[in-house]
Amino acid sequence: MVRQKIQIKKIDNTTARQVTFSKRRRGLFKKAHELATLCDAEIALIVFSATGKLFEYSNSSMRQVIERHSLHNENKQAADQPSLELQLESSTYAMLSKELSERTNEVRRLKGEHLQGLSLEELKQLEKSLEVGLLRVVETKGEKAEREINALRQKGAELMEENERLRMQLESMPEVETVAASSVPEQGQSSESMAADPPPYDDSSDTSLKLGLPYP
């Protein structure tokens, strides 16, 4: 006899539904026990009947399995949802990237590049920006040149003052004359100096001249 296949739908008869629930519940718990034993799995089953009665099965501890399940869900949600800090960093990066792209395009347009996609109004605004920028460049150039000229004038005035100060300092200095004086000692001459210099000739000591005798 071929076993008739039962259609999977709600059983209208209350008694038949209760009997089927009891049989299927026992079979479900048996299959869970076999799976836990064969595969070393941690299993917990919670079943509420139509009347609100609780049936549960766990091969270890129902509480530990439930806590593990809750912790797993929390970790999964934390991993799936980026943190607030990462969201802020991503938002900041996107904003900076957009601003960088806009600035790059603006610089290229100021250089005369990528002008094909601009409208007439945008070209007029670009022309006005260039005129204002050129005026600022000219003003800045003039201010810088004026500052450099003033600095050179001030430096020249300082050099002139320094030259004048040095000239006045040279004029106010007294003239120094070097006089070489030679002194001859009158007394206290040594015997060596007397011997080195012969005495002058004294004709009074020559008696031959006084007596009129012939000079030998």
TrEMBL record:
<dbReference type="GO" id="GO:0046983">
    <property type="term" value="F:protein dimerization activity"/>
</dbReference>
<protein>
    <submittedName>
        <fullName>Uncharacterized protein</fullName>
    </submittedName>
</protein>
<keyword id="KW-0175">Coiled coil</keyword>
<dbReference type="InterPro" id="IPR002487">
    <property type="entry name" value="TF_Kbox"/>
</dbReference>
<dbReference type="GO" id="GO:0003700">
    <property type="term" value="F:DNA-binding transcription factor activity"/>
</dbReference>
<dbReference type="GO" id="GO:0005634">
    <property type="term" value="C:nucleus"/>
</dbReference>
<keyword id="KW-0804">Transcription</keyword>
<dbReference type="Pfam" id="PF01486">
    <property type="entry name" value="K-box"/>
</dbReference>
<dbReference type="InterPro" id="IPR036879">
    <property type="entry name" value="TF_MADSbox_sf"/>
</dbReference>
<feature type="region of interest" description="Disordered">
    <location>
        <begin position="173"/>
        <end position="216"/>
    </location>
</feature>
<keyword id="KW-0805">Transcription regulation</keyword>
<dbReference type="InterPro" id="IPR050142">
    <property type="entry name" value="MADS-box/MEF2_TF"/>
</dbReference>
<keyword id="KW-0238">DNA-binding</keyword>
<dbReference type="InterPro" id="IPR033896">
    <property type="entry name" value="MEF2-like_N"/>
</dbReference>
<feature type="domain" description="MADS-box">
    <location>
        <begin position="1"/>
        <end position="61"/>
    </location>
</feature>
<feature type="compositionally biased region" description="Polar residues">
    <location>
        <begin position="180"/>
        <end position="193"/>
    </location>
</feature>
<keyword id="KW-0539">Nucleus</keyword>
<dbReference type="InterPro" id="IPR002100">
    <property type="entry name" value="TF_MADSbox"/>
</dbReference>
<feature type="coiled-coil region">
    <location>
        <begin position="93"/>
        <end position="169"/>
    </location>
</feature>
<dbReference type="GO" id="GO:0045944">
    <property type="term" value="P:positive regulation of transcription by RNA polymerase II"/>
</dbReference>
<feature type="domain" description="K-box">
    <location>
        <begin position="86"/>
        <end position="176"/>
    </location>
</feature>
<dbReference type="GO" id="GO:0000977">
    <property type="term" value="F:RNA polymerase II transcription regulatory region sequence-specific DNA binding"/>
</dbReference>
<dbReference type="Pfam" id="PF00319">
    <property type="entry name" value="SRF-TF"/>
</dbReference>
